[in-house]
């Protein structure tokens, strides 16, 4: 038996806004950041659980405070008791009646719960000596169903249906694990497409993406229609007709504007339109889906919980579902969302990038392939080539594919030196002279 003795939090920020990496129509100057935690126990194995919430700078301190508000549920607790029943542990946080008032089940507090839940999964996977995707992919269908809170879901997905989905995928699990290790998981890249990049940089990065084996790239749109048409023309001419080009408006438009704007971009053969409007607007997304068909609508990186995803699917408001490892309440809720997507036969193409999101979310897609949907068809994980060097187990993306992580854990652990150097506001990277010289 062991006890959780400490939960340490870190406000870590990377000054990415200096180079306009990550710039889009709504987020002009992001500093990729992590409200980060590490869970420490008194067990002799020395394993720690690491997790984070991704933010884009200001507000990272608020998110760190939200994680601190959950410490009382963790410190002093029996580690095995928490890890052995992760379904009950999830409910312990999400059903905290006082903290629940702040959502319910959305926003700052819900994201903080996600970080703590994911850190516990990291610890559980390390103790099992497995990467998270394999740990999950080897649990029984019954154990997996027990992870999920079906409250608010049963009009779309019952526990019995979830069990059936897991059982149907069970016979092929081993074979698909092998397949992943042999062929990897498809990726697409957003690296060429940030709004702040020059036309020359866009063309160069498009050429490099094709050379690197990506079958799909993504461009940010929604700032200015003529700019979008010019940039899409450059991208299409550079990559040729066979590479898919998705576009992402980052919530910029109203419903009618989304439909009319996309009519102007349709000639460039768009693979999907991502986040055309508010992530809360289920009926708006449904109207846009009808208005821009056959172009699929993709969304999810800001969808706050499984309930909104359920409605999006029920209303045929999205045709590509984009989970995010650090938006909802962690691994458990993302498994519920993967099940919903499987039930409605909608492909899952996770949102990633930022800092650590690629490292974390690849485990969920790989688990989905092994134990939920059982297919790679129409599925791919976003790839952005930023900040991977700060992670103990950085992603391995080659030939346009993610290669499965084999190290134990959930992928979120950063090097201690990075946590210290980019600590905000006191870390060396944020000292006035460093910022001035680098700028
Ligand atoms: Mg996006």
UniProtKB/TrEMBL annotation:
What are the recorded Gene Ontology BP terms? Answer: amino acid catabolic process; carbohydrate catabolic process
Database matches in SUPFAM superfamilies: Enolase C-terminal domain-like, Enolase N-terminal domain-like
The UniProt entry, under PROSITE patterns, shows:
MR_MLE_2
State one Pfam family annotation: MR_MLE_N
**In the Enzyme Commission scheme, what number(s) does this protein have?**
4.2.1.68
What SMART domains does the record tag this protein with?
MR_MLE (SM00922)
Report the PANTHER family cross-referenced here. ENOLASE SUPERFAMILY, MANDELATE RACEMASE (PTHR13794), MITOCHONDRIAL ENOLASE SUPERFAMILY MEMBER 1 (PTHR13794:SF58)
This chain's protein is named: L-fuconate dehydratase
Species per Swiss-Prot/TrEMBL record: Arthrobacter pigmenti
């Amino acid at each position: 038996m062991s006890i959780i003795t400490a939960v340490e939090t870190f406000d870590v920020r990377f000054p990415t806004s200096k180079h306009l990496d990550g710039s889009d129509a709504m987020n002009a100057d992001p500093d990729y950041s992590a409200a980060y935690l590490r869970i420490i126990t008194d067990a002799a194995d020395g394993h720690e659980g690491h997790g984070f919430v991704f933010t884009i700078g200001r507000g990272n301190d608020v998110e760190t405070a939200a994680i601190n508000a959950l410490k009382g549920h963790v410190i002093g607790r029996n580690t095995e008791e928490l890890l052995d029943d992760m379904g009950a542990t999830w409910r312990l946080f999400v059903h905290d009646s006082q903290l629940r008032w702040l959502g319910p089940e959305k926003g700052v507090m819900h994201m903080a719960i996600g970080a703590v839940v994911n850190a516990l999964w990291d610890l559980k996977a390390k103790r099992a000596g497995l990467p998270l995707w394999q740990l999950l992919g080897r649990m029984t269908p019954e154990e997996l169903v027990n992870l999920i809170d079906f409250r608010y879901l049963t009009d779309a997905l019952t526990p019995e249906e979830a069990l059936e989905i897991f059982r149907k995928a069970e016979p092929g699990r081993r074979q698909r694990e092998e397949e992943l290790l042999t062929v990897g998981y498809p990726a697409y890249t957003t690296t060429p497409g940030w709004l702040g990049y020059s036309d020359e940089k866009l063309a160069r990065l498009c050429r490099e993406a094709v050379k690197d084996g990506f079958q799909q790239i993504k461009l940010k749109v929604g700032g200015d229609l003529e700019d979008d048409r010019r940039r899409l023309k450059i991208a299409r001419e550079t990559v040729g007709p066979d590479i898919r080009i998705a576009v992402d408006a980052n919530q910029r438009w109203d419903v009618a504007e989304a439909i009319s704007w996309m009519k102007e971009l349709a000639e460039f053969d768009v693979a999907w339109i991502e986040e055309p409007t508010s992530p809360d607007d289920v009926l708006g997304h449904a109207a846009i889906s009808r208005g821009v068909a056959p172009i699929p609508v993709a969304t999810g990186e800001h969808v706050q919980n499984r309930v909104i995803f359920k409605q999006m699917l029920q209303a045929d408001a999205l045709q590509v579902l984009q989970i995010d490892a650090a938006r909802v309440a962690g691994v458990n809720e993302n498994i519920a969302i993967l099940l919903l997507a499987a039930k409605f036969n909608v492909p899952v193409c996770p949102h990633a990038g930022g800092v650590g999101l690629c490292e974390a979310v690849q485990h969920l897609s790989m688990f989905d392939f092994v134990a939920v949907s059982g297919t790679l068809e129409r599925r791919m994980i976003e790839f952005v080539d930023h900040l991977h060097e700060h992670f103990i187990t950085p992603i391995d993306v080659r030939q346009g594919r993610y290669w499965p992580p084999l190290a134990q854990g959930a992928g979120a652990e950063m090097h201690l030196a990075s946590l210290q150097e980019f600590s905000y506001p006191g870390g060396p990277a944020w000292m006035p002279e460093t910022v001035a010289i680098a700028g």
